[in-house]
């Protein structure tokens, strides 16, 4: 009888479920997309200024996507899939 108790007590379980991990990967993808959109825009010649570094994509869109990705990550952590 005590052997059965030990087997049930040693059962491991995960804190998160499939739905949580799905939202976590979506959040990571959104964050990665934001950082990819932020990259580039520099000039090959250091003496030449390239105004493309200040375009909408790098100043508004990319940081918004990164913040949205972090919000999705927080939601994924706080999500209770049993409800």
From TrEMBL:
InterPro entries: DUF3098. Keywords: Membrane, Transmembrane, Transmembrane helix. The chain crosses the membrane at residues 21-41, 61-79. Pfam families: DUF3098. It comes from the Bacteria. This is DUF3098 domain-containing protein. It comes from Salegentibacter echinorum.
